[in-house]
Task: inverse folding
C-alpha cells in the first residue's frame, strides 16, 4: 500500500474510526516515522478537532479551574518542597544546621542510627513519589482535612484514587502527637463505625503523610479523621480528632 | 493563525512549568473542551472530571509536546474526545455489570441548566469555524449526518448506532467512514486547503 492510498485511513485513524488489522498496520507504518503519513495525520487531527467547533462553547464551573490550580501547586510543593516556600527553605536550613551539629556531637554514634535516618528519608521520598501517582490519577478526589478547633492548626488533604483505591494523606501544621503516641487515620463504615487505615509519618516540622488503601467497607459519604493514639494498632479511636473531613465534601 | 501563535508561546512556557501559561490555555480552550465532554458524557459531574483530567494531562506532558503535531487546541480536543469516550465505555461496562446483577441503573443525564453559558471569547474565536463546520455537515445526506453525529459527538459505538438506526453494522460503518471523508474534503476546501 502506498502513502497516497493510506491517506483516507490516516484520517479515519485520527477520527478513531479505524480498528483491527487496518489500525495496527497503519500504526506500525507511522511508528517507522514516515514523514508523509505523519504529516497527513497532523493535518487529519486538525480537521477532526475542527468538527468540535460545531459545538456551542459551555463555560465550566470555576471550581474546575481552582481544582486544577490547586493540583498544580501541590504537585510543585511535593515534588520540590525546598524551592517553593520561604518557610520550607528555612526548614531545610534548620535541618541542614541540625544535621551538621548532630554530626559533630554524634561523632561516636553508631552507624545504625545514621542508617535509620537515611532509611527514613528514603521511605518518605518513596511515599511522596507514590503519593504523586495518586494525585495525578484522573480518578483522584481531594478531601479537605482541618483541625476542629483553634488549638489544632493542622490542615491537609486526603487524595483518593477511587478507581484503584489508593489514598495519600498529606498534612501540615500538626503538633507532635505526644510522648509514645502516633497519629492514626480513620474512616467510617456504613454503620458509622471506625475503620483504621494506617499510621501517619510525621516529620519534625509538622508535615505528615500516609500512603494507604481505602478500606473496602467505607461509607462513601462518611467521615475521615486523624487521632493521636498510644497504640498504633488499635481498632478504635480513643481521642478527639486533630484532623477531620467528610468524604462527600469533594 | 494568531491563536495558534499565541498557543505555541503558551506551550513553550508550559514546557518550562509555568502554571500561569496553563491557566491562560485553560481560559482560552476550556469552554470548547467542556462542551465536547458534556456532549459525549451528558453528565456535568463527569464532564468536569474529564475537563480537569485533560488539562492536568496537558500540564504533565507539556515537556513532550511537539508543535509540529498540531495546535494546542487540536491536542486538547483530541485528548478530550478520547478521554470522554474512555469514560463513556467505562460507564457502560459498569451499567452492564449492574444490569446483570439486577441493580439500579446509574444516574442518567445531568445536562442542561445554568452551566450552559457560552464563553464570549471562545464563541468569537470559533464563530467562523462553527459556520464552516455546520455548512459542511449540511452538505452530507441526512443518514450520513445522523450517523456521524451519533459517532463523533455522542460517542456511540458502531453497533449501538446500527441498533438505534435499525441498519446493518456494515452499512453504518461504511456510512460513517464515507461521511467523515467527505467532511474532510469539505472542510479542507472551506479553509483554502489543508493546514
Result:
Amino acid at each position: 500500500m502506498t502513502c497516497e492510498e493510506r491517506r483516507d485511513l490516516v484520517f479515519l485513524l485520527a477520527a478513531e474510526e479505524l480498528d483491527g488489522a487496518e489500525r495496527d498496520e497503519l500504526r506500525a507504518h507511522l511508528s517507522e516515522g514516515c514523514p508523509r503519513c505523519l504529516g497527513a495525520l497532523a493535518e487529519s487531527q486538525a480537521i477532526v478537532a475542527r468538527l468540535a467547533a460545531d459545538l456551542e462553547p459551555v463555560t465550566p464551573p470555576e471550581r474546575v479551574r481552582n481544582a486544577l490550580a490547586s493540583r498544580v501547586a501541590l504537585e510543585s510543593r511535593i515534588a520540590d518542597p525546598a524551592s517553593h516556600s520561604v518557610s520550607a527553605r528555612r526548614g531545610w536550613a534548620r535541618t541542614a544546621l541540625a544535621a551538621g551539629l548532630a554530626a559533630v556531637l554524634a561523632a561516636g554514634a553508631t552507624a545504625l542510627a545514621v542508617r535509620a535516618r537515611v532509611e527514613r528519608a528514603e521511605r518518605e521520598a518513596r511515599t511522596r513519589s507514590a503519593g504523586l501517582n495518586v494525585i495525578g490519577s484522573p480518578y483522584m478526589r481531594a478531601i479537605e482535612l482541618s483541625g476542629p478547633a483553634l488549638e489544632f492548626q493542622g490542615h491537609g488533604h486526603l487524595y483518593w484514587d477511587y478507581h484503584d483505591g489508593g489514598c495519600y494523606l498529606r498534612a501540615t501544621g500538626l503538633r507532635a502527637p505526644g510522648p509514645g503516641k502516633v497519629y492514626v487515620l480513620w474512616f467510617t463504615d456504613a454503620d458509622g463505625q471506625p475503620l483504621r487505615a494506617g499510621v501517619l509519618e510525621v516529620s519534625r516540622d509538622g508535615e505528615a503523610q500516609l500512603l494507604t488503601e481505602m478500606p473496602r467497607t467505607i461509607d462513601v459519604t462518611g467521615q475521615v479523621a486523624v487521632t493521636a493514639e498510644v497504640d498504633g494498632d488499635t481498632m478504635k479511636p480513643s481521642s478527639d480528632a486533630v484532623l477531620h473531613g467528610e468524604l462527600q465534601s469533594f | 493563525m494568531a491563536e495558534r501563535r499565541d498557543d505555541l508561546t503558551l506551550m513553550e512556557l508550559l514546557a518550562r512549568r509555568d502554571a500561569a501559561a496553563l491557566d491562560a490555555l485553560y481560559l482560552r480552550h476550556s469552554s470548547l473542551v467542556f462542551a465536547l465532554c458534556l456532549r459525549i458524557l451528558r453528565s456535568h459531574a463527569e464532564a468536569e472530571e474529564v475537563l480537569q483530567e485533560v488539562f492536568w494531562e496537558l500540564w504533565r506532558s507539556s515537556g513532550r509536546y511537539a508543535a509540529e503535531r498540531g495546535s494546542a487546541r487540536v491536542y486538547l480536543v483530541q485528548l478530550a474526545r478520547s478521554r470522554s469516550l474512555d469514560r463513556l465505555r467505562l460507564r457502560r461496562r459498569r451499567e452492564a455489570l449492574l444490569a446483570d446483577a439486577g441493580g439500579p441503573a446509574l444516574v442518567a443525564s445531568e445536562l442542561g441548566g445554568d452551566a450552559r453559558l457560552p464563553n464570549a471569547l471562545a464563541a468569537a474565536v470559533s464563530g467562523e469555524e462553527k459556520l464552516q463546520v455546520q455548512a459542511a455537515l449540511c452538505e452530507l445526506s441526512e443518514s450520513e449526518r445522523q450517523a456521524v453525529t451519533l459517532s463523533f459527538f455522542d460517542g456511540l459505538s458502531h453497533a449501538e448506532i446500527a441498533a438505534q438506526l435499525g441498519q446493518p453494522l456494515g452499512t453504518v460503518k461504511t456510512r460513517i467512514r464515507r461521511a467523515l471523508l467527505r467532511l474532510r474534503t469539505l472542510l479542507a476546501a472551506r479553509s483554502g486547503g489543508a493546514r
Summary: Residues 111-136 of chain A form the longest helix (26 residues). Strands of chain A lie at 140-146, 155-161, 166-172, 182-188, 194-199, 201-202, 208-213, 223-229, 241-246. The longest strand of chain A covers residues 140-146.
